[in-house]
Design goal:
The complex is a heterodimer of chains A (287) and B (348). Chain A folds into two domains: 130 residues, Four Helix Bundle (Hemerythrin (Met), subunit A); 152 residues, no CATH class. Helix content of chain A is 73%, strand content 0%. Chain B is of the alpha/beta class and 348 residues long. Chain B contains twelve helices and ten strands. In chain B, strands 7-6-5-8-9-10 form a six-stranded parallel beta sheet. The longest helix of chain B has 37 residues. Chain B is elongated and about 80 Å long. The chains are: A mainly alpha (287), B alpha/beta (348). Chains A and B meet through helix 5, helix 6, helix 7 and helix 9 of A and helix 7, strand 10 and helix 12 of B.
């Protein structure tokens, strides 16, 4: 219960941070940005504590010992919220780009609220024993690596959205206050690219690790399971983005559209595929 | 203790008079004050104002007119018609308004804050400050910052050239890696180039139909000159293009800009057309990654900014008045048994 209480509080803090982030977009008061970051970090700390409690409870089941508790929707969503908020705090917080909070923190809120909602429908935080196939050290690596890339892509999506707005602002020749609040086009473009340039190899490594685990568990490297297929589609979009950027010098609006398609694919891979995939269904409890 | 202010500003005194006072060294005023036993004096002297703040000990209080006479004698000019004289609460409120930029020619400008700071430091170095002036000026500087951060009084540039530079920064971020191409060698071209250089633009190239004029301006600006025939090629390298030639036909055509944009492989191109009649074909604005601003676009941004600043004056004034009241209340407790304290952090 403690785990859920901490998680709910963290979700509340993310909601407040989101509200402040939106307020900061239109209000030139640095204190708002400061409090946004503080609330976000407080949420991160509570979520980490919640995760600690989760580990303790999860490991109380003997066969789960030392394995990560992310074999369920609740586990995955809450971990993703933690990762999105964490990447934001590190990347944008460090670069003093608090203004991008309005575009990124909502994703942490959505994931955290999704986890809380899931717990409400399931009547708990989905702590149960791992199926034998999942009792492998790979569960500590493969999903974590992939979700790190998802968190990076969520951040890139936020940055891309800010870039579309900024480009429109300046192109219109009637820039509003927002134009002076947002980072420059080139900065946003570079940041978007850098985050994806980080996320893409992480995603690729995560997929390959999945293949190796699949080989160990099921005796095949690749089986065109829905999750595998969609992960590959996601990778293609981001590879396309990086290719167009490197080779063709594509920047700005069009590049953002490609990366956004990639993110749509991430969301589908993470959520939609659960309804299709037998092997990767959080819904079926198989992780 | 009591406070007195005598001053002249752009609002009521002609330039000649302000100049006569501006050359008056603060040291000379401090010297006279010491002779008269006045221990606290601060001189705020800028091209738009000259103000003398004096603080007296209890018992030796003098009227503002005493300070006025002092200034008249030192400068050898009659000032009375143009000068303002305030004592006590009014003097405090005046200094707070000045520091907040409410009394400036361009409302909210920030230069004045630095000037007030310098004035105070000069006085501090000359040991001409005391309890009242120390707290008063530190308070004024703090309030000046507070007003600018909590209201929008200092938001938005107020000249065409500075708006252009600000937009360039919204596109490229820092301009330290940006190349600037200036077409034309007139006054506006020079002004904009100087603004861009003040933001550390990496490289400035000037091209003009008459090469000698381009070379002349380039020499003055530490920029390089370029033959007119070569400028279309230079568009490929330039990030910011400032057009202000006297040509009656557009000099930058859509075809030219399209070729440049393609060669730039997605890097933004910012074209500022401040020429009348226009130097750049309107359809250039349709090109991807090309941002075209014309003189009227920049002027309407300036007008909006000035309007916004004006709208913030009331809010800023409220802050100034409330802080002045608070300070005055504190001032009256100095030396009494119930001397209060002022904290920077307390609520406005």
């Amino acid at each position: 219960m403690m785990e859920l209480l901490l998680m709910k509080t963290a979700t509340g803090l993310y909601a407040l941070a989101t509200a402040l982030a939106v307020k900061y977009l239109f209000n030139r008061d640095e204190r708002i940005s400061l409090w946004m970051l503080r609330l976000l970090v407080a949420g991160l700390v509570l979520q980490a504590a919640s995760f600690g409690v989760r580990l303790k409870d999860f490991w109380a089941i003997p066969e789960n010992r030392w394995f990560m508790p992310i074999n369920s929707f609740y586990g995955a969503l809450s971990f993703l919220a933690l990762a999105v908020a964490g990447v934001f705090a590190v990347v944008e917080g460090r670069n003093r780009l608090g203004i991008l909070g309005a575009f990124v923190i909502p994703w942490a809120l959505v994931c955290a609220a999704g986890a809380v909602g899931r717990a409400a429908t399931m009547g708990g935080t989905e702590i149960h024993g791992l199926s034998p196939a999942l009792q492998s050290y790979w569960i500590n690596i493969h999903p974590m690596v992939l979700m790190t890339s998802y968190a990076a892509f969520a951040n890139a999506f936020g940055v891309g959205a800010a870039l579309l707005i900024q480009e429109h602002q300046i192109k219109s020749r009637k820039p509003t206050e927002l134009c002076y609040r947002l980072p420059s086009i080139e900065e946003l473009d570079t940041l978007n690219y850098k985050i994806i340039a980080f996320g893409f190899p992480v995603l690729t490594v995560g997929i390959i690790m999945g293949g190796i685990w699949a080989y160990n568990a099921w005796g095949r490297f690749w089986g065109w399971d829905q999750k595998e297929t969609w992960a590959l589609i996601t990778a293609f979009f981001y590879a396309g983005f990086l290719h167009m950027r490197y080779v063709k010098g594509m920047r700005g609006r069009k590049a953002v559209y490609i990366s956004m398609l990639g993110f749509a694919s991430v969301v589908f891979t993470f959520i939609g595929v659960n309804y299709l995939s037998e092997l990767h269904g959080y819904l079926s409890g198989r992780g | 203790m009591s406070l007195v202010l005598v001053g002249l500003s752009h609002k009521n005194a002609p330039v000649g008079l302000r100049e006569a006072l501006a050359v008056l060294p603060a040291e000379k005023i401090f010297e006279r004050c010491r002779e008269e036993g006045v221990k606290e004096a601060v001189v705020v002297s800028t091209c738009n104002r000259f103000e003398l703040y004096l603080a007296f000990d209890e018992g030796q209080s003098k009227a503002p007119s005493w300070a006025l006479t002092l200034l008249e004698r030192l400068s050898g000019t009659r000032l009375s018609v143009h000068a303002y004289q305030h004592g006590g609460a009014d003097a405090i409120e005046h200094l707070f308004s000045v520091a907040s930029g409410l009394d400036s020619l361009v409302v909210g400008e920030t230069e004045i804050l630095g000037q007030v700071k310098t004035a105070y430091e000069k006085s501090l170095a000359a040991k001409m400050t005391g309890k009242l002036t120390n707290v008063l000026f530190q308070r004024a500087l703090y309030l000046g910052k507070k007003v600018r951060s909590e209201t929008n009084i200092a938001v938005g540039q107020t000249s065409v050239a500075s708006v252009a530079v600000q937009l360039a920064e919204r596109i490229f971020g820092k301009l330290t890696e940006s190349t600037v191409l200036i077409l034309g060698a007139g006054a506006m071209a020079e002004l904009t180039a100087r603004h861009l250089q003040s933001q550390k633009a990496a490289k400035v190239v000037i091209s003009n139909r008459t090469y000698e004029r381009a070379a002349g301006l380039a020499g003055a600006l530490k920029a390089s000159a370029l033959e007119w025939e070569k400028f279309p090629d230079a568009l490929k390298e330039a990030d910011i293009v400032v057009c202000s030639t006297g040509s009656s036909e557009p000099v930058v055509t859509k075809a030219m800009a399209a070729t440049a944009a393609e060669a730039r492989a997605g890097r933004s191109l910012f074209i500022i057309d401040i020429a009348m009649p226009r130097d750049v074909e309107e359809s250039v604005a349709d090109l991807e990654h090309v941002y075209l601003y014309r003189l009227e676009d920049l002027e309407s941004i300036v007008a909006d900014n000035l309007k916004n600043r004006g709208g913030e004056v009331t809010r800023a004034r409220e802050l100034v008045v409330s802080k002045a009241k608070e300070f005055h209340a504190w001032e009256r407790t100095i030396g009494t048994a119930k001397e209060g304290s002022l904290k920077h952090s307390e609520a406005a």
